[in-house]
Amino acid sequence: MMSSQILVPGWLQHLLVVLLRLALSSAFPLRTSNVTTCSARGPASYILVFTGHWSPQTFPKQYPLFRPPAQWSKLVAVTHNDQYRLWQEGSPASPGVQNFAELGVTVELVKEAKEARKTRAVGSMYRTAGIPSGIGHSSTELILHPRNPLLSLLVKVIPSPDWFVGVDSLNLCEGGQWKQEVTFDLHPFDAGTDSGFTFSSPNFPTMPPENITMITSQKPNHPANSFYYPRLPQLPPLATIWLRRQARSPVRQHNHVSNHILPHHTKPQKFSETPLDCEVSMWSSWGLCLGPCSRGGLRHRTRYIMLKPANSGSPCPELEEQAECTPHNCLAQ
């Protein structure tokens, strides 16, 4: 006599497994991604001050003096949440970032921000006036809302192939409270869309484009690079961002361009001078051996200065060298 067994069809077994998984997922929900949330009550108003520290004392190598001189573009700032990224180190530059980093044009950046604003990923976009020198200030007022507590910004280094300074997704809301004051040092970045090494390099597109990378004192590791200072462990700050929350109620102003400067921010910050060592070319070929056969001859070779020293850097070595030799016409005697 056969033992009694309950035969369960395969489709029913599959259905039971699915229902069991759904029950477990409701009892133990999966962890969500690390999304930035802000539980602050109401918006916050900030004053933002951008300060350029780009001077011949801190960055003497190839410092641009004309056509055009060292200067800063307009600052472009965006308030947003985790669903938007103006730029990110290690990622490709968007068309908007490329146009801005290479040409200082904001049309594509504005289009990208407006598109993200449709899904409420972007709050507002702000701009400041440009700075006509390497040292100076520009500023504007910002309004941040709890749904868009992050701040990103860009400023182009002028002149440069595709270099900029900026802030990526700075969170101004912490623990349900708006931060009162933030200071952030800015260092140069390469957008990865132009292969120029120097401030005045001609347009030389990078094909295919590379990711956005930080420029350091030794990267790119090439003597021609305008920011190449192998004696420094790191570059001094090229600029600084200073943010302070304002006590007064925020006023709704969008795309506001401003250039009012806080009184105690008008004094330039002092940094130690960066030593710049002399750079010379390779030796030329030896010249002809000249002189009387009785005493022997001399031959010469030369090199030239490629980069003059500055700020107590290593002085230039000898530019001419001579050596004894036997004149060619004496060898036949």
From TrEMBL:
The keyword Metal-binding applies. GO terms for biological process: cell adhesion. GO terms for molecular function: metal ion binding. Residues 34-223 form the Spondin domain. The keyword Iron-sulfur does not apply. Residues 1-27 form the signal peptide. It holds the Pfam family TSP1_spondin. Gene3D superfamilies: F-spondin domain, Thrombospondin type-1 (TSP1) repeat. It comes from the Eukaryota. One of its GO terms (cellular component) is extracellular matrix. This is Spondin 2a, extracellular matrix protein.
